[in-house]
Amino acid sequence: MPLSPDSLAVWKRLTSALTLGVLVAGTATSAAPSAQVIWSSEKDPGSGSWFGGPQSIPYALSQQANIALTSPTTTAATTLAVDPTVQYQTMLGIGTSMEESTVFNLSRMSLAKRTEVLKKLVDPSTGAGINLLRITFGASDFTGRQFYTYDDRPAGQTDPNLTYFSIQKDIDYNIVSTIKQVLALNPNLKIFASPWSPPAWMKDNGSLIGGKLLSQYIPNLAVYYRKAIQAYQAQGIPIYALTVQNEPLYTAPDYPSASVDPAQEKQLILALKNELNANGLSTRIWAYDHNFDSAWSYVPTILDDATSNAAVDGVAFHDYAGDPSIMTQVRNSYPNKNIYLTERTVWGTSGADRMAQYFRNWAAGYNAWVTMLDSNIQPEKWTGTPGPTMLIQSASTYDTYWALPEYYLIAQYSKYVKPGAKRISSSYGSASTVTNVSFLNPDNTIVSVVINQTASSQRFKLSSEGWELLATLPAKTVGTYTWLRESSGTAPNLLANPGLEADGTLSGWNAEWHSGELAHKVDTDYPYTGNYKLTHYAPTAYQQITGQSLNVANGAYRASVWVRSSGGQRALRLYAKNHGSAEVTAEIGSGVVSGWTKYTINNIQVSNGFIEVGVYSDALAQNWAAFDQFELVKQ
After folding, report:
1. Which tens digits make up the pLDDT trace of 64-81?
2. N or C, fewer C-beta in 10 Å, the chain?
3. Where are the alpha helices (DSSP H) in 235-324?
4. Beta pairing, strands 314-318 & 338-343
5. Could you count the other beta carbons within 10 Å of the beta carbon of residue 71?
6. Cα(313)–Cα(302) distance, rounded to whole angstroms?
7. What separation, in Å, do the N-terminal and C-terminal C-alpha atoms of the chain show?
8. pLDDT digits over 218-236, tens only?
9. Is 327 exposed, middle or buried, given 0-12, 13-18 or 19+ CB atoms closer than 10 A?
């Protein structure tokens, strides 16, 4: 249809309206979502200076002004795409440890101050909301006591019937009472346990330090673990899960540890599972519990066997060697198993980013290690010198303590990512700008954690389901952004033939074109879904509109379409017009869109009972754009 003088006037009016649509996009008034914003900053991460006393922190779970989400803008900023329709692992929890060093220091406090500290850790409203806690069965390297297990015998004696089994030391050392107090403050908190060593008489060197598990005692050790779970349960402390040996590939020179090879751990898991089943216990078994780098030398022995695979709920990892991507490799090989990061304390914004990497590599839980040492770096019996803990107690005034940035940085996750949340698809970003991981909570709130590791403030966009959040994050700061996702219910698609599947025709669609030939068609080349898609293309320059007009009830609507494009067009957009207010658009633009990408217009306000929705191309010769799965729904 060649351009005549009359049609030129129509075309000028059309392009004027379209231009106006570009100007007003995102300005329509409606109940747009608003994001809550919380910041925490690093300060001297990992520095021993923190043992000397508290320091000021720029941001510490600091509430900022809410940010209203808008329709997409053209503002230049790092863009992080967040897609809650693509979901990954279900989160179990985020937390720390309640090992004996921390309990030792808490026990020196007055009841009121100890309660204050525990609430600061686990209270979902006033504290960090920590909801996953690791305890040790017997002593670890972080203790103020002599090393012990639950069945210690004089040298040369054994106790295969576990006649002397007892958790009395855990009671005497206030471990049990402290954990009970934690549960009283947060009854939804889950606890998992890890043993550092079997009783010495079960090992080849007769010592809690180092040595190897003797295979002849594997059945006895399974009973030992079962009895420990039952003993804690009798105290009102349910054990959600057990890692059967902490770091089974490492024999420490000076603290409790044990070598347990993969074949032994497989036997131990099977024996323990039988014990649990026979006694009606639901405690989960987590395999491995060691570093990324050695996982492939260990895990297959357990999970390649159908019986031991069925006995295991998940695989636990530590982060002292190797890369978190190993967790994704293990998960991809064993997709029916959960993944957990059970031990690693991290510091600063680089640590917050490391946590994001854990979650992006399928970790359903994260636990820091050691919660509170005192200002003399005590008590502990580890080989080296520990770094600062998230809380530090004064060694001279026991009721005095201070929180480090790491307390606030872990709370950027634990306070807002709820148990049962799903990690969702999001752009990672880069360390030179910002990085990200995002979640969808059971209450339908989106939680996006954005990390700025750089020395300057960073501007970024969160782009999600047609909404955009534009923000600036200060240097060396983590921001948590939460907003309520719009209902994802099954609102009906009001468009006719939205996927062009009506016998591969344009039934229901109207066209307007201004070139030598009609420049749209339905074809079968790589549709997004189904068998057909719409294509705009011509060998010469063209302008093409494909749209659909319909009568609708007044109210707010959302329009969307999936797009691929060669790029190069003068203009390419999804539009909505004639609905009683100014035209609004989602600009696809002139860049290449290599993979199917969803473009959305939110909050289209219909006030006259009518709307036209479609796509528009103003293209150079041989530019093409493909469209599929149009949608118009009432919000």
Report:
1. 999 999 988 889 999 999
2. N
3. 262-278, 299-303, 306-311
4. parallel
5. 23
6. 12
7. 38
8. 999 999 999 999 999 999 9
9. buried
